[in-house]
Amino acid sequence: MRRRSDAWIGLVLLAFCGVTFAAGWGLPPAPYETMGPAFMPNLTLGLLAVLSFMLVVQGVRRPGAHPARQALSLAGRISKYRNILYSFGLFFLLAWLFPVLGFVLTSFLFLLLLQVAIGPKEWAKAPFYLGVSVGVTLVLFLIFRCMLLVILPESEFDAMRLLEDGVHVILCDSWEAVSQFWN
User: Contact at 8 Å (CB) between 59 and 65?
Assistant: First the structure.
């Protein structure tokens, strides 16, 4: 039964991809861009269409019943999706705090707390978690603030604002020096 529903869902998604692709076909080209406004949506739709086709093939190729699933209690269902619930809860909490804490602190806290929540609970992993959190936060800051010139939210706390300004000066000035060297 489940395999047939996979095939039907895949067909519905393929139809959605076709209709959406056809609707985006008429977008006018942008004079200042080489790819135009329909490039990313069409790329995403193409990927979704390939995955949908694979779902249809998988559903049609081996139809049949799956073994009976064991009924889980509410606590069992929640524990089964514990990591997903932690991720969404943490994301929404920090998205709510984003304007107050700023980009740097929010990104660092999100990455650190998510690794602690869903990763191995070993003290030996703490330096690794800290390193990944700091490194990814700095790379994201470099990409969005220095390279793409996106204005990121700043913290309302003076000490954090000093840290953000320091990160900005070090990363963005280094990026400017590197980009001038290569030009």
Answer: no
For residue 116, what are the domain limits?
A: 75-182
Is residue 134 assigned to a domain? Answer: yes
Rounded Cα distance between 108 and 120, Å, is 18
* 51 and 79 assigned to the same domain: no
Query: What is the Cα–Cα distance from 140 to 156, expressed in whole angstroms?
Result: 20
Could you give the angle at which helices 126-141 and 158-182 cross, rounded to 10 degrees?
60
The residue from 30, 61, 92 where one domain ends is: 61
pLDDT digit string, tens, across residues 86-129: 899 999 999 898 889 989 999 999 999 999 988 888 888 889 99
- What distance, in Å, lies between the first and last C-alpha atoms of the chain? 60
Return the number of other C-beta atoms located less than 10 Å from residue 77's C-beta: 10
48 lies in the same domain as 86? no
CB neighbours (10 Å) of residue 12? Answer: 12
DSSP state of 123: G
The Cα 130–Cα 153 span in angstroms is 22
